[in-house]
Design goal:
This protein is mostly helical. 71% of the residues lie in helices and 0% in strands. The protein has ten helices and no strands.
């Protein structure tokens, strides 16, 4: 039996992260200037010494300037503030699903949907996450049949907010009137929108759409 050990190196820079990429880019210009100055200053000691010194100066400047740029970025500033002045609450900040969003932007839809399904399995009562997964299936995944039960599921969660209920109902109306082509269910959702969210623009539109469907 063979045992395979895998060691993971910590990644100092993630060039798919805009903060890291921007920090690295900003450090190149001063690093090039310092590199040139070091080469000129060491030129009298020989070409090899001058090249070695210039490369060392370049690397050191990139490291220092990149670190400064990272520390000034929003990502590290918010992390530092959380460490210096913690809120005292155990509830983590809302997840923006940046990893899955980056996959969707790069066209890796199946990979993103798989990752989102794993998230949802780990957090089955997260209404916001359930809505995000449903939106991903409806838009990028172009799978209305998968999106529809997720919108319904989100509305039944204990922590669902009125805004999330409104959003899920609105999406279901669009699906039933569009891709799923189910006028009966569309009418039920329009009636729900009218009753549960009175006074909103969507409720007024729902009233008008109901009249049209009943004709």
């Amino acid at each position: 039996m063979k045992i395979k050990l895998t060691f993971h190196r910590p990644q100092l820079l993630d060039f798919e992260n805009l903060h890291d990429l921007k920090a690295f880019t900003l450090s190149l210009q001063p690093a090039a200037l310092v590199c040139g100055l070091a080469f000129v200053a060491l030129a009298r000691r020989g070409v090899l010494v001058a090249i070695a010194g210039a490369l060392l100066a370049f690397g050191a400047t990139v490291a220092v300037m990149g670190l400064i740029a990272l520390l000034l970025s929003d990502r590290f500033a918010s992390g530092a503030m959380a460490f210096i002045a913690p809120s005292g609450r155990s509830t983590p900040s809302p997840d923006d699903y940046s990893y899955e969003k980056s996959l969707l932007v790069r066209g890796k839809v199946d990979e993103a949907l798989t990752a989102l399904e794993v998230r949802l399995a780990n957090h089955p009562d997260d209404a916001g996450l359930c809505l995000f997964v449903a939106d991903a299936y409806a838009r990028e995944g172009r799978d209305a049949a998968k999106a529809e039960p997720l919108y319904r599921r989100a509305r039944e969660m204990p922590d669902v907010s009125p805004e999330q209920d409104y959003r899920a109902t609105n999406r279901l109306i669009d699906l039933y009137l569009g891709a799923l082509d189910d006028p009966a269910r569309a009418a039920a959702e329009l009636d729900r929108m009218r009753r549960r969210h009175p006074g909103t623009t969507a409720a007024a539109h729902a009233e008008q759409a109901l009249r049209t469907l009943r004709r």
